[in-house]
Amino acid sequence: MNISLEVKQLKKNQTICISGSKSETNRLLLLQALYPDLTIKNISDSDDSLVMKQCLQSRSLVKNVHHAGTAMRFLTAYFALCTHEKVVLTGSERMQQRPIHTLVDALQQLGAEVTYLNQQGFPPLQINGKKLQGGKVILQADISSQFITALLLAGSKLPDGLEVELIGKVTSRPYIEMTLRLLNQIGIEASFTDNQINVFAVKNTINSEVTVESDWSSASYFYSIIALSPIGTTVTLKHYRQNSLQGDAVVATIYKAFGVNTAFKNNLVILEKVEEPEHRELTLNLNDTPDLAQTISVTCLGLNLSCKLLGLHTLKIKETDRLKALYIELTKLGGNVEVTEDTLTLSKHLGIRKNISIDTYDDHRMAMAFAPLALKVNLRINNAEVVSKSFVSFWENLQKMGFDLRTIK
C-alpha cells in the first residue's frame, strides 16, 4: 500500500491512545512463558508482539519470527533452556542477514546446543533445548542490547544464575536497565554495577501483575508533529508515566530544543509547541536511544536545522541499514547529508522538495519518521503498511489529527 500525505489544517487538542510498549511487552511475554502465573495488561498490538506470542504458544517445530528482531534474539535464549525442546528458529530474508553469533556464542559458553543451518553466524538456527546451569559469560559492551537482554531474561531460570561481564562502553544502556527493572518488578533479583550484570536464580514462584506503559518510541512521531506545527498546537497521549522504564522517554527532554513542552497529568502526557527553536544547530549522542535517530533527523530537515547525530553504529543491523536509508531519503528531499559508520550530519538546505516518494525498506520507523514532514510538503510513503510492525493504528491516528491520506498506485 502506497499513500500520499498532505495536511491542509491540523486539528488541535486531539487525544491519541498508543498501545503498550513493544519493548516491555516482548520482555514480559518471555517472562510469562517462564513464569505462567505472571499477568500482563495493556499488551502491545504490534506485529512483533503478535509474532512473539505465536512462537511461544505454537507447537510447530519451525518458529518463524518474520521481521521481528526482538523475537529472534529473545526466543533463541528461551528455547536453548527449554529441556527436550527441539526447534528451528527462522525469519525473513532480511532477518537471515542480521548477525546473531554474539548471542549464540554466549549461550554456547553456558552449554547450549545451537547450530547454524545456513550461513555461519546468521539465522536460521537449530536449537536443541537442554538444562543449563548458568554461570558467567563475557561480551563486548557495544553489541545490540537485545543480545544482552535475551541472556538476562533467561538468567533467572538457571540454577546458578547468570553473571554477564561487559567489555568496553555499553550501547543502548536504558534498554538493559529496562530489562533489569522489569525483572525486579516481578520479584527477580538482578543488579547492574559498573560493567557487571547479575541475575540470580528464582527460589520462589513468581505471582505478579504488570501493566505495560504505552510506547515512547511511538510517541516520538507525535513530538515531531508538534515540533513541525505552529506555536500553540497540542496533542494528548494516553497511558504514560513520568518515571518510565523506557529509554526513549528521553524524547521529552530532547524535543525541548525544538520548542516542545511536555506536561504529565495522571496517566496522560500533553505535548505543546511553545516556541520556535532557538538553536540552529543540534548535536546529540544517541548511543543509548538509536531508534530516535530517524525521527530527529526528519524533524531537523522540516525545521531547516543543522544536526549531528552520534552513536548510531547499531543502525546498520536494524530492519534495514538505517543510516544508508536515511542518507538516500533525506537527500531525495533536498537535504545535505553525510553519514559515517556511526554518525549522521545534516546541514541546512535551500528548500524541501515536494511530492517525493519515500521508500521504507521494510522498516516501520522509516514510514513513521517521515510522515510528519507532510506538515511542510506533500509527500508519498511507499509500502505504508510496514507500520504494523510496531504501531498498527498509526495512520488512523494521523487522520484523526487532520492528515489527509490517499491510497495511490
UniProtKB/TrEMBL annotation:
Pathway: Metabolic intermediate biosynthesis; chorismate biosynthesis; chorismate from D-erythrose 4-phosphate and phosphoenolpyruvate: step 6/7. GO terms for molecular function: 3-phosphoshikimate 1-carboxyvinyltransferase activity. GO terms for biological process: amino acid biosynthetic process; aromatic amino acid family biosynthetic process; chorismate biosynthetic process. 3-phosphoshikimate binds at residues 22-23, 27, 144-146, 172, 291, 318. Phosphoenolpyruvate binds at residues 22, 69, 98, 146, 322, 365, 389. The active site is at residue 291. Monomer. This is 3-phosphoshikimate 1-carboxyvinyltransferase. It comes from Myroides indicus.
